[in-house]
Specification:
The structure is a homodimer. Helix content of chain A is about 45%, strand content about 15%. Chain A is an alpha/beta fold and about 350 residues long. The first copy, chain A, has three domains: about 45 residues, 434 Repressor (Amino-terminal Domain) (Orthogonal Bundle), CATH 1.10.260.40; about 120 residues, Rossmann fold, CATH 3.40.50.2300; about 130 residues, 3-Layer(aba) Sandwich (Rossmann fold), CATH 3.40.50.2300. The longest helix of chain A has 16 residues. The N and C termini of chain A lie far apart (about 70 Å). Chains A and B meet through helix 4, helix 5, strand 2, helix 6 and helix 10 of A and helix 4, helix 5, strand 2, helix 6 and helix 10 of B. Chain A binds a DNA duplex (30 and 30 nucleotides) through helix 2 and helix 4.
Chain lengths: ~350, ~350
DNA sequence: TGTTCACATGTGCACGGTCACAAGTGTGAT
DNA sequence: ATCACACTTGTGACCGTGCACATGTGAACA
């Protein structure tokens, strides 16, 4: 590791000012490209900056302006495809807008952990927070701590308000369910996500709504944990007494586990059982069989999310209401009419 | 969004000091739990802090101390399971150590993009950088910009030095290759990652080394892009003239694509072709057939990475050399002896 | 030629901490 | 009673930038 022992201080605007023969304020004006600066002066200052390899000190800037230009992300399950894609998109969009991003991961979802993560973000003086850990409890804690910065939540019910932005999960779930019903299925199970995930709840609601609307009797959804492992275990049990012809899984990973269990039970997909997933992860097209699923545009979501959040920051102008991001049904080979 | 119009300034140490009847310096001492402070004074100050909901201002602290307590992550493909897991682990470990983390994603791998991302990090005055975008070019740029902060790279050749820390990719690849050879395969293809990824190169080297050591003739590896889609396309071509009995894919996603293509071509796995992957993503156990692969402990890697980086920061004591993180072969059902 | 005004630039302080140094207090030894 | 010394606390400057305000300059106009 290279280390300059003489401990040279990084050049400041005053260093630049001295060498350029101007005042530090002029340098500051160049930095913030203030309109009324003579071109020649500006050029000279820029030249010196370049020579000195000057880099503005962010801490000083944040201190004097009282703004950190940082937004925080509060996330859970950040290793999964959906959240990871959104996070990446958020970071890119924020960087584009000149903001820094700081992510706090939730390992567990107890109140203490949520509080610790939020504190971590607040200590950084984030100007806004994006929540991608859509457990119901997170919002309780947010209110409880009386967080004063604006926040936006990804993945919610599809209902748009100041705080929420999402793919319309309910519509997506209805799409998937309707697809199965249209194929002729009448005994359809739903493998849902964890109970306290708003997202899981929305998909479940979409499923139940559509079943109700189409007048198809339903059974209670099974609550899972998003993992393929869980899907497999749930599948082992379900396929031991197959009193149904289709399953709508609330994500692709659990659907994968289900298909694995179906093979173990000697059931053909889609011959004996139809399966629909949710998310359309890049691997879904290569599952066996290729999975019919609901596609969400996570990147688009991340971008819009940043736009919405930034528009809520003081000093920025509010943007117009956004249309919801609509999900799309991708029909592949894991669904077919039931074989009676 | 709640907004206090009176624009109340957040309380500072001087506010706390005034109310506690002490000097601002005493408050500062409490904050940094300096040894010689009377218990009663400390208690009083803490009480006032609590009353005022005082939160130290990070910018001011960073400015006066000249340390940001922030580390940067430079990453590419951050939506994939491996990198995402490591990133999450790094964030957790850093937060535990009292550091903040800022991530810059690489969308493209041209020099300009790398430079922009690095600049973004340097502008934040990160004290160290973790590189998880192990393209060869990244390091060129790092040197070229004469980045002065310590940096550590994840996923390298398995050779440990000040800058690199990784699962021993070469050993992992040898493990996978040896497994195929031990089963009796002699015509083995390798589906590698992108050429400029150090990681891909290491796995390729491991493959070639083992083939050479076991005296098995090899063909040139195919260069892929890590995606299941690529694996599928490569597979379509390969399986049209199956002059081989096994493939070692340098990650699980491409292996998935290969298996998809094999099914399309009417080839049984492992009956006609054996396939080994790399990474052991959580879904691999549920592929059809369940995938034999090499497991890497990404979390462990992330944690160690932070430990190594922090130990290289001025002021912290260097930690002892770490042992390499060893990969493990996970044998499932996608490999079997060749059927002649 | 003096006045007005826009433009260009400079001066000094504030932001909220930390640091170096000074100073006050109490205890025990002489 | 005096002194040394450890412990506790206070004072003022400083980190690098941006802001409010002051000032200097030249052109347009009366």
């Amino acid at each position: 590791m290279t280390e300059n022992l003489p401990k040279v201080r990084a050049p400041s605007i005053r260093d630049v000012a001295r060498l350029a023969g101007v005042s530090h304020q002029t340098v500051s004006r160049v930095l913030n490209n203030h309109p009324s600066i003579r071109e020649s002066t500006k050029a000279r200052v820029l030249q010196v900056m370049d020579d000195l390899q000057y880099r503005p000190n962010r801490a000083a800037r944040a201190l004097s302006r009282g703004r950190s230009r940082t937004i925080g992300i509060l996330s859970a399950q950040s290793t999964e495809y959906g959240p990871a894609s959104s996070i990446a998109a958020i970071q890119d969009a924020a960087r584009e807008a000149g903001y820094y991003v700081n992510t706090a991961n939730l390992t567990t979802v107890d109140e203490e952990s949520i509080e610790a993560a939020l504190m971590h973000l607040m200590l950084q003086a984030v100007e806004g927070i994006v929540v991608i850990a859509p457990q119901v409890r997170v919002f309780d804690v947010l209110e409880q701590l009386s967080i004063t910065v604006p926040f936006v939540s990804l993945q919610s019910t599809g209902h748009l308000d100041d705080h929420a932005l999402s793919v319309d999960q309910i519509a997506g779930a209805r799409l998937a369910t309707r697809h199965l019903i249209d194929l002729g299925h009448r005994r359809i199970y739903h493998l849902a996500g964890p109970q306290d995930w708003i997202e899981a709840e929305a998909r479940m609601r979409g499923f139940l709504d559509e079943m109700w609307a189409m007048d198809v009797p339903t059974t209670a959804p099974i609550l899972g944990d998003w993992t393929a492992d869980f899907g497999y275990r749930a599948g082992r049990e379900l396929f031991s007494r197959p009193d149904f012809t289709a399953i709508f899984s609330s994500n692709d990973q659990m659907a994968l586990g289900l298909m694995h269990a179906a093979r173990d039970a000697g059931l053909g997909i889609p011959r004996d059982i139809s399966i629909v997933g949710f998310d359309d992860i890049p691997e879904a097209a290569h599952f066996w069989p290729p999975l019919t699923t609901v596609r969400q545009d996570f990147e688009e979501l991340g971008r819009r999310c940043v736009a919405l959040l930034l528009s809520n920051l003081p000093g920025n102008e509010p943007i117009a209401d956004q249309e919801p991001v609509l999900p799309r049904l991708i029909v592949r080979d894991s669904t077919a009419p039931p074989s009676f």
